[in-house]
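[Discussion] Sanity-checking designs against the backbone

I'm trying to build intuition for which residues belong where. Below is a structure token string of 310 positions. I'd appreciate it if someone posts a full sequence so I can compare it with mine line by line.
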């Protein structure tokens, strides 16, 4: 069973791109996956993340405070500002601006942990960074979205904060609680965690691509360029800054992956809930999610063949 689950998780980009293409050319196949499905599937993926976390993961944060602080600062300063700068340079319309800034202001997701493993990076640090950035997303994601996109569209920062709490902190803490009180049950369930996260975001992407197929078709080139620039900048800056500060190569790879890969599913869910009147916001979020996973898979394949130079 574990072998097949690993196979399914490793082929994440294939499922993501495949269902996106199906939903784009045949929207009716995925229109059923609406806002309620998106919310609960993302909550399930966050619960799955929580089931994989134990006290040792919290202890790891204290053992590598410099690396965690560096990754955290890059994720919640570099990425939102890069997203905002891209929206200005490319003169993006309101919907794309909101979507790009929103995804740039989100925490890392479980996909980054999978990519870190494949890239021979520091998986423990990757998990720690994902955990830290997720637990504070309820504050930083609405804050940056309001600060950088609030000039173009009204942003309900309090409402987004509550939504992010429901989608991230609550299910993750529930998962941690289950692992603490029912460790054997958590062990059995956590085997499926990465696969649940993969399935959730693949379906979220398919649902939003189907609902926004016409908007994506009309703005495909701009969406592709904006998403590509955002995530390439994240991967590059995360790696370059970490190496500049003389951290080992495995740490640099990890920070690069965590900064370059955001929780596109969370961004898409927040866009559908709080910017429903501008469908390009959600479309930009899922387009960004697809792009980062393709880039992450390419980077992982490259690094996998090259052991970290410590």
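Best answer:
Here's mine. Compare freely.
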């Amino acid at each position: 069973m574990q072998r097949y689950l690993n196979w399914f998780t490793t082929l994440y980009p294939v499922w993501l791109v495949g269902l996106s293409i199906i939903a784009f050319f045949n929207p009716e196949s995925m229109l059923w996956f609406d806002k309620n499905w998106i919310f609960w599937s993302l909550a399930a993926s966050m619960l799955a993340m929580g089931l994989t976390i134990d006290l040792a993961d919290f202890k790891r944060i204290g053992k590598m405070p410099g690396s965690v602080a560096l990754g955290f600062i890059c994720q919640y300063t570099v990425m939102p500002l890069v997203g905002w700068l891209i929206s200005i340079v490319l003169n993006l319309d309101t919907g794309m601006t909101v979507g790009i800034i929103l995804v740039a202001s989100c925490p890392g997701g479980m996909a980054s942990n999978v990519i870190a493993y494949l890239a021979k990076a520091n998986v423990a640090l990757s998990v720690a960074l994902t955990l830290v950035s997720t637990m504070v997303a309820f504050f930083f994601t609405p804050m940056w979205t309001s600060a950088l996109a609030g000039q173009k569209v009204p942003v309900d920062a309090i409402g987004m904060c509550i939504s992010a709490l429901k989608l991230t902190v609550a299910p993750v803490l529930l998962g941690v609680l289950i692992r603490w009180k029912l460790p054997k049950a958590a062990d059995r369930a956590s085997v499926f965690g990465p696969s649940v996260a993969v399935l959730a975001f693949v379906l979220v992407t398919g649902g939003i691509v189907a609902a926004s197929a016409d908007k994506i078709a009309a703005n495909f080139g701009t969406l592709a360029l904006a998403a590509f620039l955002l995530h390439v900048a994240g991967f590059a800056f995360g790696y370059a800054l970490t190496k500049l500060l003389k951290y080992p190569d495995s740490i640099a790879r990890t920070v690069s992956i965590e900064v370059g890969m955001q929780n596109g599913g969370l961004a898409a869910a927040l866009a559908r809930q709080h910017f429903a009147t501008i469908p390009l916001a959600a479309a930009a979020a899922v387009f960004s999610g697809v792009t980062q996973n393709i880039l992450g898979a390419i980077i992982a394949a490259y690094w996998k063949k090259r052991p970290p130079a410590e």
